[in-house]
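Example 3.
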Amino acid sequence: MACPGCGTRVVVTVFPAIERVPKGEQPDALQDPTEATCFYHPLSRAAVPCDDCGRFLCRLCELPADGRHLCPGCFQVALQTGKLNEFDTKRTMYDSLALLLATLPALLIWIPVFTAPASLYFVFRHWKAPGSVVPRTRYRYYLAAVLAFLEIGFIGFLIWSAIHFFLAGRISVQ
Amino acid sequence: MSASIYKPLTGKRRGLASFSQLWLAPDHILLVRSSRLTERYQRFALADIQSLVITATPDRTVLQILAVITALAWGALAVTVAVTFWKWVFIATGAVGVLLAILDIARGPRCRCTLYTAVSQEPLPPVSRQRIAARFLAALRPAVEAVQGALPAERAEQIPMSSPGFLAGPPRLGRASHRAAWILFSLLLLDSVLMWTGFRYSVSGGEGLILTAYFAEILLALMVLIQDRDHPLHFAYLLAAAVLVCVGADAYATVPEIGRRTFLAATGAPLGPMFVFPFRVLAFALAWRLTGGLIGLGVLFFTRPGKTIEVAVESASPQETAPE
């Protein structure tokens, strides 16, 4: 269809969720005083225990995450420690960082003295760190490590050559 | 590497140092925005997706043809230079320009895609071409319908504006920031001050300054002409066009004198003070810059972002439908 105002062509695809009224979970009321109650709501019937701390939770407090049921406290802790893959909103790509440190500074001679070891540090320190959420190969780590070793080898060779010629010059002068 | 639950929904939409991409999981879609060193994720549950709106953006055929012609003209500069190195520089850069312009044409018409849930309206940058949008819809629709069920076409057309999904009303149309226009009108004021100072205190060696000012004003006016053509008041567009005309008039009056001074400087002849133009030339240059700058900044201030265009929509009470 076209916008009646500007005539721009618009394609709208509608799904059944558009007619659904958003509704949150409601806790079940306590029917019998002997029933287990929610840790946070003493008047609500417990529905499930927290998979981390074991506290009883009503339907309102139960938070499903990564196939588990967590209480709000454990959910917050898991979120802060990055244990919930499903809720990850940001990740650092250490492999790209290592590759960047191994490649771009190589255009200059002296900067790799610092960046090549830094690249190796990121490669070994974060080798097992969770990478991207989506599929991603590890070739950047391998490439960064190879380049960093080559740069360090080259710098080492330069230093060795300088010392060698310096000493050779002194001997010939004597 | 463990098997991932994600399958690519679109290709990467690349920027200078970033990209974005959409992935499909069994129960949600994932929008990845990457700055190469970090990735940010947004997830949309398939059960929560209410609608997808794909809007065709204005046709750019003329601009694309202009880009090809400009790149060809740039490459053709190779015949005007004698040095082989510069010949190849012009040919190579011109060829790259032509290639980019042709690739842009080959990728087809552009569009914008927005995903609506009950609580958010999220633009999906990777869906930037109509061809990609068709593939994206073809892949996403069965996945969403597997979770939500299908909505018959006749039912979709009957959905009233009072449905819960429409309660928020149409999207708020935020005005663009018009950054180039802010800079242009500020620069006009600054240039008027510089010219007055140069005239008042007989500054010498100001030729480069004047030419730089002309160049910056022309460049910014062209940027405004390209960026602000959709502005509802069209004022920035008109003012930028007026700026181009006035800079042209200024250049016509001053460039011959600047050229003469440059020639004298090259030959080592003594130069007098700068700004020896007739007073009417200076008065005109000052007046239009001052007036245009003040009017432009004033209008930009009173129509700045944050004052959004509200579109009123009547909404009745929401229809109660049983959740699935």
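The first strand of chain A starts at residue 10 and ends at 14. Helices of chain A lie at 72-80, 94-103, 112-125, 139-173.
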